[in-house]
Amino acid sequence: MLQQNINSLDVMTLDKMGSRYPSRLSFSRSMLRRLLFDNWKISKSKFDLNDEGFGTVVYEIFINNNIYSLVCFSQHLDSADRSDRVIAEKWDTAYSLISGKLNDDELGRLRKNVPLQESGRNSSKELVLSRANKSVRLFEHVVNCLSKGKQPDINEINKVGYLLRTTAVYGSGKFGLSDFNNTKEVTDFNQPFRAEMLAVYIIREFSVHLVEHVARKKNPNKAVKLENTIKQHLGIGNSTGLGMAPFIIKHPKLINKWMDQYTKSLTQVINKNIDPIKLSNYSKLLEKALLYLKEVTTFDEYQIKKNAKTLEDLKKFIDHIKNYNYIHWIDLINYATKNFNYDTQEIAKVQLLELYPEDSENFAEDMSDTEVMEINETQTLKELNSVIENKYSWALKVDFAKKDNNFLFWYISAAKLEPRLGERYNEDGSELEQNLGVAKMVQSLYSKIRTENLDLSVAEYLLLNPEFRGIIRRIQSLTKYPFAEVQDNILGKDTIPINMLRFKLSFFGANRYDPKSDRWLRVSFFSGAPFLSNLNKHNVDSWGFATMNSYN
Amino acid sequence: MSYSYYEVYTNAQRAFSGLGFPYGADEDAAYIITWFELYNLKGIDLFCSFIETNDEQYNYKINLFKNERVIDLNNKSNLITGPGVIDYIVSIFNTSNVSEFSLINCYDPIFLIPLLSRYIKKDIYGKILNDNEILCVVNKEKISINKKLFKKKINNTIKIILSNTPNRNQKLDIDINLIDSKKYLSVGLSPNQISWDKVAALAFKSYVPESEESRSKGAGGGDAND
Question: Does the predicted model carry a pTM greater than 0.90?
Fold first, then answer.
């Protein structure tokens, strides 16, 4: 049974986490469904841009009886100041999603603070803070085309994929923003990253409004708007670095929840019988994924090889499906698991979920979890020891006497208060290491308690050994959470940090995965998604693995 | 200026880490401070008063007498000893019929309240007393506090009584209605700015200064503008 295959050992290693793809459960997908089916209304309440596209735009979002506002500030930026790095201090555009309708006083307050990003202050009314830079080449290209009355070539669009590229999308209490517990309670955004996804989706709308405005001002008589078949291929870019990786270690119950919901959805589907119509649709979905992979551009050698292998395997899988008759989906999935690379296995699963939308619908609306971790005071050291041996055997296998297994350390940088990765034997600062090396901490605890009186309770032990409070609480709290831990040593020299980023980004729904090093990458959000003007029940969920011919 | 719960907790946790609190102990201490700040009881000020008396040594050894009902805290702050002590008395309470515990040399018992409040959801309700009077009563939805509990005293002795049934309401100086946490969260937390800056300076001790090399290697991110 697949259930036996989809256990934590199978899926929570770094290489498999780094082979994930967006699915119906991804936050961008579920947000767009709610936007459509719950009849959210979005309109521009202010559009005050000069001829060059600098100024202020406000979008209002009406959900149930509530109003939210997304404010966009666009300014001139010298080329020298334009940087994707989080240490940048100026951006082409800056955004805030706030609860309520904006008045002039609030707009003034936001204008003073939002463009400053991390250096500004936000109130608990603000839900999301973001900024984006232009893709200078594509933005100028599209302006030029539109101003001459022409549509840009979709091949040029495909090379970059976006007009604006965000470099951070903050929420959940950062820089004074509303805490998620508050957002969940008092707004309509009751799922993780739902408010953030709405903000990103509207920023995408803004990117098109901005480019069309500049083109029109450049040549009012000839300028045209982007055609749907071209503009739908535009996503919103995102540049992401190491900041995302510690999130996965620090929110184990949440990560478990995401994987658990995904696994439950899949488990429901794989036990169904295959019918010919579904099988035919499945083949088409796999063909679409194949074409998507052919069209995606990256210059990263590792990713190019990985994509090439996936293309090869996916072709074989598609051919295999045509030639064999299976009764249950599980047999097909098992075949992919046994014969193809991890990317192909994942594509096989996420595309299968597309065939049975009803099986993932409710799971996608239940992606949040309490993150409280607690000490089990009465557990004995003997019992704790047993839990470690059963649940953390992967951690006990690492030989930390070898320098390479203890090579990296995670820290918070004094310059930007952001997570960074250092080399323990080549750089200063490892004494201030963040507590993210779970395997190392587990081993340290394990070797210590084996020499203790194993009949002691954890509470007794911690009175004299509080240095183990954190790791004991983690181990005890996660006993029943099979997907909570990254089951690899993330301090090892051969760690590829962007594997963790890809895992998280897949649940966000990011695509066009384009690594720039082992520590940062670019992706797109909402590439291929319908814009507000043509969003409907037929296309709201059909934009996964979008390709250049998806819109004809 | 208003701050989010996340910011207060994170700043406090990093500050405790900067003070040398180990992993886990830093989280518990930050939870205690943020709990007070959330309920407008000046958690960040309390943190600063702890900093003034703390010798920057994380010293935690706690003596257990043969009598498990008496625990000597050696006049160390409950920001350090409290989490372990409350775990311990709860474990004794859960495994035996013992419900009364004496904490001797308990310097700052106020910090025990957030720790006791965590057990409400497990139907364990605490009461803190000294010889003469009730200092704190924990109930299902309300915690009542005697102002005297905020006083720090060397060689202080208190008694904690645990029960599986909610305590009777007591009229004390301060009432905390736990349901108000949502209201406070919705407007943000407002710590004393001078104290906040002190805590932020301590948190800074847990950060690593960057060299040009580590900036380029460690951050990721690039400058390509395509």
Answer: yes
